[in-house]
Design brief:
The chain is built from 14 helices and no strands. With 314 residues, it is mainly α. The chain has one domain. The termini are far apart.
């Protein structure tokens, strides 16, 4: 019933808002791709609604911090969220990489070589789609852990990632507060790994939304942990807040995991203290990066990138 309603809604939106201008401009060859994007965007808006329904009551229930006059900085984070959750960058990366993969696989086929996928390497996964989905999530999350560590390790990448860490009033909206160049790199990284392990295109949006729902919760301004065992199974708001603490910004940070804390435990970067809820922010960030609007933050992040590259060349 819900699937039929969702399909009918996206179909109506496509036929009413997207298809007429495509037909008028002679761009109907793009109809299928844009229909897929619309489906993804509607799913993104649905994801925002679900995140708000879960996280906003939690923040009102047990906030870590109470602020006055924080509306503007929170609204800026909301702009980031709506730009990102429409799925444009991740989906474009997946589409572009899928096209390149098709060309690559065509060349390999002509050469008599068949590139392996995860389900080819582990045939039983073909009969257990939920298990395959879970394994895809684990592998992608492992990749995200190392991308996150790299963001803190390399000076030029930290210059971009510092846009995210500059927020002193962290809420569930802060998850998508990233420099656009950092978003492009992340989208290509995530999409590339997904294609490399053979994630079916139909499952990619679901995996992306699942991980982003968890990430939004981990950034929430709520005094919440998942217990002694749960803290080691899933990243909680407390676990990730330690990563955003004033003393954790930069290359010596802790708690890099995006979804599964097991990576921090395995590689010695975990901090599992359950009674610590530090203030957040980057002491070295300029004020424009901390409290400026979207354009000022993007410009400040780009200037920091140029400065970091200049230092590395010097």
């Amino acid at each position: 019933m819900l699937e039929d309603l969702y399909a009918a809604t996206t179909g109506w939106l496509f036929e009413t808002l997207v298809q007429p201008p495509l037909y008028a401009l002679g761009l109907m060859d793009w109809a299928e791709d844009l229909h897929d994007w619309l489906d993804f965007a509607v799913f993104g808006l649905l994801g925002i609604a679900v995140v708000y329904a879960v996280c906003r009551p939690l923040e009102a229930w047990r906030p870590v911090e109470h602020w006055e006059g924080s509306g503007r900085v929170v609204r800026t984070d909301m702009v980031y969220t709506f730009l990102t959750r429409l799925g444009l960058l991740p989906l474009l990366a997946f589409v572009v990489l899928a096209s390149l993969q098709s060309l690559w696989e065509g060349w390999l086929t002509e050469a008599g070589v068949m590139p392996p996928t995860l389900e080819m390497l582990v045939p039983p996964l073909r009969d257990h789609p939920l298990l395959a989905l879970a394994l895809y999530v684990v592998i992608l999350d492992f990749g995200e852990y190392w991308r996150h560590r790299a963001q803190h390790r390399f000076g030029w990448w930290w210059a971009l990632h510092s846009v995210h860490h500059a927020q002193r009033r962290m809420t569930f909206w802060t998850d998508d507060r990233n420099h656009v160049l950092d978003e492009v790199i992340a989208a290509l990284w995530f999409g590339g790994i997904a294609l490399l392990i053979g994630v079916p295109p139909g499952q990619f949006p679901l995996i992306l939304l699942l991980m982003r729902l968890a990430e939004s919760l981990s950034h929430a301004n709520v005094r919440l942990d998942f217990g002694r065992l749960g803290e080691r199974l899933l990243v909680s708001p407390r676990f990730h807040r330690l990563h955003h603490g004033l003393l954790s910004a930069g290359e010596h940070g802790r708690n890099y995991a995006v979804l599964l804390p097991v990576w921090d435990w395995a590689f010695g970067t975990g901090d599992f203290r359950r009674d610590v809820y530090p203030r957040t922010g980057d002491p070295g960030a300029p004020e424009a990066l901390a409290s400026g609007g979207w354009l000022r933050q993007q410009a400040a992040g780009f200037r920091r990138l140029l400065a970091a590259l200049a230092r590395e060349r010097g």
